[in-house]
Amino acid sequence: MSVKQVRLPDLGEGLTEATIVRWLVGVGDVIAEDQIVAEVETAKATVELPAPHAGTVADLHAGEGEEIEVGALVLSVDTAAGDAAATNGGVTSATTGHAVGDDAGGAFDDAGDAGDADGDGGDADAAASDSDDADDGASGNVLVGYGTGGGRARRRRARAPHTSTPARSSRPRAKPPVRKLAKDLGVDLDAVDGSGPDGRITRDDVHAAATTAPEPSATAPAATARDGARREAVTGVRGRIADHLSVAWREIPAASCWVECDATQLLALRRELAAAHPDTRLTPLAIILRCCAVALVEVPQLNASFDAEAREIVYHDRIDLGVATQTDRGLLVPVVRDAAGMSVLELADAVEQVASGARANQLPPADLVGSTFTISNFGAFGIDGGGPIINHPEAGILGVGRITPRPWVVDDTVVSRPVVQLSLSFDHRVCDGAEAAGFLRLLGDLVERPTLLLAH
């Protein structure tokens, strides 16, 4: 018996641990080299773990929902069966019902909404439409450099041949973190109706089912404290968010300012561009992002960060805009790279692509880090404004409220105008109040008169 030990590889991006979301194989299964054997959730994304050896699964060393560190033992593979697996090519795992071989599954379709700022019913939580493989809840992301796939940036799970094994698509439509939540709360997903797109089960659906379900038995895996309060472990993405916000609140001396803007001309420009480019989903947010990029070029103190160890201000040579996006796994910040070089239409496409990718859990971890300035769209949730927490280590974050009719004075006459509130939280170590106010005033002028963008 020749047993190979498989350990959790380096996750990159400074990540040191991951949570086993779902095992795709069981003890005794024959697996092929590079077969996806598990889905693991890092602090940035859910990725797939390929097996570096062919053979028979001898042992699984971590349970679903368990957090393990880089280098920890994950599974053991008896490679004595490796030759048989390689010869058979398309061996089917008894646990997963999936074929293992070179017949790659279908690609993912990226679609979805990036959230509307004008209060017209834009859905900030719309999930991406899924292909057959995406329906499995797979991320489409693989731990890079692990396994033997060489230069392939993405691997896709092989499709099962037509056998008597029940199709996995018959499982409830829920993403891995939602399935884990259901397991923790003792909720049977087969009995839950999904309220998400295409009937997908969301966290809210699981929580609703948990509150109406009968009391669990003594052996049920309900995460309930003795005093009756429900407890949920803060790990993976949610844990990373908690740590990140704690650091930001503790280390950054933040100040804030805000301004209200007449969005009449902005909405008129949106209608004109939307009519001329019907294939682009153009939201007011895309135009505001263009205004923001221009303002950051003019006031670079906001496109900076504070290096506390070196006691230096770092002025970034490129504007990479983070777009705060609500997902089933928590608040993520996918990044639109080099936004200053994009047109309004290009920004609209880019925001929709990264936001829908984040919601569908199809972005690699590298696309969720490295922003130099962040925008949070409160308007997508029907909120007028607020004071957002800075995305550490950036120097500022912009909050965009909903666009709603309000009384507005024009030529000494009170009229109804669509108004949007823009709020800025900024690191007072990096820029002074005058610089922050200058940035926000320029941004407000561009929002009120977007034709000024032609001068930049």
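the 2nd protein, sequnce then structure:
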Amino acid sequence: MLALSSPLAVGIYSQNNLIKTYESSESSSESLPKIFDDILRAYDVGALFYTNGPGSFMSIKVSYVFLKTLSIALKIPLLACDGFAFNANSPIKSLGSQWFFKEKEGIVLKENPKNEAARFTLPLTLDKSLFESENEPLYILPAV
């Protein structure tokens, strides 16, 4: 699931291949219950994979709480990876003129001279090796 920016995207994978996509431009809190109501009626979900940041703080937090609750209720794993895997390692918009960049030393905040973001896309084939069980959100912004 991609919930770092709009639109929110959820993919259904069978044998690691994308078979269905759900997208919504509504807020995560509005769209997740609707999308997962449809998914849980139609599919036997064996695991949940999501991007845990960086990106929209509220969307990441809502997605994490929703998916963690679903993971516990359904007794299935929740796995996470950063969003750079789904936008060709392009900068991700933060606040103001700041952007998140993935560099050798980790995820850093700095200005983006191009000031443009790449679109997040669900892969046609899910690479499970990108995900790990450490699934808490990436809260990178300093406290204000």
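Residues 74 and 80 are 17 Å apart (CA to CA). The helical segments are 28-42, 57-74.
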